[in-house]
């Protein structure tokens, strides 16, 4: 039996993350947007009721957890917990970080703009060593990264 996909999305109205099953983009017409003063949104169906979420915040659950047992979602930013820091020219210690993406039919880690990493670790064998440290929605500097788009 196939599992129903699980998603998370951020609601500005409630100021928090919601988790649920199934979502879709509401394709508002420009006339309706102006009339109601709203923008594009997505709907997330939670256990209790539908919630309007910010479109850029929606992410699907990968089916994997990080080192601490936290669920890993599409758009999350992760770092390897047992990684050795890389020392930059100015002496600052930097850790490799990746964003979680879905590409070529599977989940993948992609370098972030701030990451000194030069390779992409295998998702399936490395997820358990990762730690979720944020997401692209709350860290917009990662949103426009051509490597994660």
UniProtKB/TrEMBL annotation:
Q: Tell me what this protein is called.
A: Phage uncharacterized protein TIGR01671
Q: Identify the domain of life.
A: Bacteria
Q: Name one Pfam family in it.
A: YopX
Question: For the YopX protein domain, which residue ranges apply?
Answer: 6-141
Q: Which InterPro entries does the UniProt record give?
A: CHP16711 (IPR010024), YopX-like_C (IPR023385), YopX_protein (IPR019096)
């Amino acid at each position: 039996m196939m599992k129903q996909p699980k998603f998370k999305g951020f609601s500005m109205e409630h100021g928090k993350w919601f988790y649920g099953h199934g979502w879709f983009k509401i394709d508002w017409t420009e006339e309706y947007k102006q009339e109601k003063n709203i923008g594009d949104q997505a709907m997330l169906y939670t256990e209790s009721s539908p919630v309007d979420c910010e479109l850029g915040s929606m992410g699907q659950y990968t089916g994997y957890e990080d080192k601490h047992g936290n669920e890993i979602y599409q758009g999350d930013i992760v770092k390897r917990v047992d990684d050795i820091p890389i020392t930059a020219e100015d002496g600052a210690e930097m850790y490799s970080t990746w964003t979680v993406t879905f590409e070529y039919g599977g989940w993948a880690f992609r370098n972030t703009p701030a990451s000194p990493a030069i390779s992409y670790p295998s998702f399936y064998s490395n997820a358990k060593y990762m730690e979720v440290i944020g997401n692209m929605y709350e860290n917009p500097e990662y949103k426009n990264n051509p490597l994660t788009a």
